[in-house]
Hints:
Blueprint: H1 6-33, H2 36-66, H3 82-96, H4 99-118, H5 128-150, H6 158-182, H7 194-197, H8 209-226
Helix pairs in contact: 1-5, 2-3, 2-5, 3-4, 3-5, 4-5, 4-6, 6-8
Amino acid sequence: xxxxxYPEFLQHHYMIxxxxxxxxxxxxxxxxxxxxxxxxxxxxxxIGICILQEIVxxxxxxxxxxxxxxxxxxxKELPLQPCHFAYFASMLAIYTRKESFFHIGYFFGMSxxxxxxxxxxxxGIYSLTSNLASHFQHSLIIVNLMWCISALHMRATKRxxxxxxIVLNVLILPISIYNYFTGENYFFLxxxxxxxxxxxxxxxxxxxxxxxxxxxxxxxxCYLFYLPIRKD
Length: 232
């Protein structure tokens, strides 16, 4: 995408973000008002929407590749980014009503998906359709989390932050091996994302030291999001 086109879609992105803040608020409100007997059915609706969004997202990428607008490689299209783990964990939290899945979805989502919404990268935005598909994937994570908090009364503990950090580090090993053999950059383990390189709160952007810096700030960052929904 040319530099002159990207800012146009970036404006669309932030307009959609403003609308999604309203949607997140409405989902939270509805979760507090909905009768208990209807919660399971509505939860299944949310899961169905998420699955449909994933199908549409891949279809959009294939169409973008056929149009020459998107660099489609099967090795980099797998759902192996932290946001994907947050996405599926949030759906599992709704389906199973287990807080262990919610904790992964919440801390991965608020650290990955939320930042992805606020600081979108150029690679995934090359048309209005791709903008919508990418935005909705991240936004649906927040929708699911708002539902878990309001309707299913899920909360976080201090231990859940450590649990999320452990899961993150356990995932790093197989993801690193996959990156090594494919040359991909899942979990941004091979190269720092632009949001780190150009963000003044990240003083280190050289490999592998920026990874250690992310590890260091993970707990205090997640602690801030833990406070509004703390259980202990």
